[in-house]
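Supplementary Methods, section 5.1.

A reviewer requested that the exact input to the structure prediction be made available. We therefore reproduce it here, unchanged from the version used in the analyses.
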Amino acid sequence: MRLKSILIPFVLLLLAMLMSGCNPKTKEPAPTIEGYRFADALGQEITVKNPKKVVALMGSFAETWLNAGGELKAVTDDAFDERGLALSKDMITVGTYNSPNVEKIIGCSPDLVILSSETREHVAIKDTLKQAGIPTAYFQVTYFEDYLKMLKVCTDITGREDLYKKNGLEVKEKIDSIISNKSSLPSPSILFLVTYSGGAVVKNSESMTGKMLKDLGCNNIADEDKSLLKEFSMESIMKDDPDYIFVVPMGNDDALAKKNLKETIESNPAWNGLQAVKNGKYIILPKEKFLYKPDARWGESYEYLSKILSGEKS
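The structure derived from this sequence is encoded token-by-token as follows.
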């Protein structure tokens, strides 16, 4: 009996100690992550674990990876020229986004390469990188929803759910709020053009900026008159006579872009007869918001267009 009377308090003390260790307020170490598995835009099943030497073959993809809290080993020229990303001085450049240097990429010994499924030069090097034992992940990003999906994958890889909220969900909330107010905006007919040195290309609502304008209630004349997508026709544009004309000039030289615009489009005598031109609704859009992928600034692009359509901005 004496032994029993000694053992019972001891057992109770031991149980108390064990229970205190199971207290839900006690912070337990995070479980070890073996890797994150996902399917990319080409249908590849990929597993990655904490990649640190990442090569991004498009400036907007490099920015998305940074927005997810990732680290970069190498990028293409447009990360500097078009995006102006604040990258380290020892950042390696592996060519241009539409002409990546495979030897340089392999020389970086990356643990992940991020590529575009819409860029044929990227798809063309898939097998070469695979043979070199380098994991590749292809993404397709045209609309904000695509960016949000890519950001989710990237933040799942990095474990930065906070950055998915900040650079993704909070941006979505802003866009949703802007779109929800479109009932107070007019529903104008619009023409959307991308100009280059040799002329202009008409874009419909399936383009990045075209979709933003559609989301805001605009009626793109190229959605109905599909012949405009094949050939720039001043006659067709005069017939539709849109309320707004939005233009994004291509090229890094703004002065040259405006010169090309004047020589290829504005020099046509019929141009000044369009109501959009006469009413001051012929608007050149900044390419950093409407040619390049805005990424975490997508909400700013929607807001910019909304202010034009509401008359707050000309």
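The first strand starts at residue 36 and ends at 39. These observations are discussed further in the main text.
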